[in-house]
Fold TetR/AcrR family transcriptional regulator.
Amino acid sequence: MADSKTDLRIIRTKESILTALIDLIEEKGFETITVKDITTRANINRGTFYAHYQDKFDLMAKCEEKVMLEISSIAKQNFPNVIASLEMDSSNVPPFPLTVSLFEYLNKNSDIMRALLGPKGDLSFQTRLKEFMWDTLYGTNPIALVKEENFLVPGQYLSSYMGTALIGVVQQWLNSGRKESPQEMARILTIINVNGPFYAAGLKK
Amino acid sequence: MADSKTDLRIIRTKESILTALIDLIEEKGFETITVKDITTRANINRGTFYAHYQDKFDLMAKCEEKVMLEISSIAKQNFPNVIASLEMDSSNVPPFPLTVSLFEYLNKNSDIMRALLGPKGDLSFQTRLKEFMWDTLYGTNPIALVKEENFLVPGQYLSSYMGTALIGVVQQWLNSGRKESPQEMARILTIINVNGPFYAAGLKK
DNA sequence: ATAATAAAAGAACACCGTGTTGTTTTATTA
DNA sequence: TAATAAAACAACACGGTGTTCTTTTATTAT
């Protein structure tokens, strides 16, 4: 038994569906999209959609899972993480390699990421991604220097703060046409994180 | 002609609808809610709903507009804003009055705010609120000391960063049962904003 | 208190998207 | 070129939508 490859038609169909989904999210937002919208746009029969996905939520979930896995793999490749490379007293630290890799991934997959993270995207995805970001980028692990007992504020708020701030910066970058390079974005994010937003606004020191 | 007050039935109906909406958002998420769900929960006829709102999106929009106006009014009452009261070199600044007022408002209206800002809430609202927050809390105005030419990073990213970070902290607070007082939350947020998240995590200085 | 008013309830309607189940056609694989 | 299965096609019951009409009921103003 040869390791039979997946039928070309399936690949084409799934690609058509994904492209249609991304387009439609940006056009009218996920919540108002119908399965009919998707199949019409993808030029496939509606029944074919149901051969691959339960409904539009299932499609979305599978789509998001794929993205999460890819980001997760990036995090693993860049282990040890961010925190370990921080020089404490430097106010001009180099951008963290993991952050650069992250923005490079976002840059390569900007269409789908803009759809998912955009103002018409999926809120639950952003929530999950936020938590995931904290865990992988700044979260506690054997290497990280993060120690809860040194916190000046409750860890849950620090986590929310940095997680959502990162998502916010990414959203802004994606929605404003990605004018800056991934390296530049990593630098910007690092400056604000290390020195604080007030410092970055020229209001301190 | 006396300035006829609105019919008591209208007030009752609208209140029932709003309560039902808030409950249902937390139960199943806005996107899967049907008008029938709302009217059943609110114990009103479905036709009555359409006498007041075009559809569930219209209801949501009116509901959000109300919240935005109230927050806007809070911002006006606390003018001049946050920035003007910042002592530059202090690492133990008092919480900004406007931020305290904001958390007090959120505390009083926690049900609706938790529904709107929660993981099953409305993404577009969060986007609008984020921009609104920057404008009113940290945005450039005649009093604010914020000057774009002093920025170490592009202003759009600073805005996104602080706006989303604030929302993230608020969400965390609302979803974890509001254990801290509004004053304490304002203090936490101020510490992170002024000194930076890394400092607040005990990773700097 | 009562009449005028209008809000809410109730019922019926066509419309549209859903999810499913068959059958037929067509593309891919071996 | 034959076997296979994906996709197209068609038909179905179901449920929510948004509208219109009539009837009932609560509120307001006299």
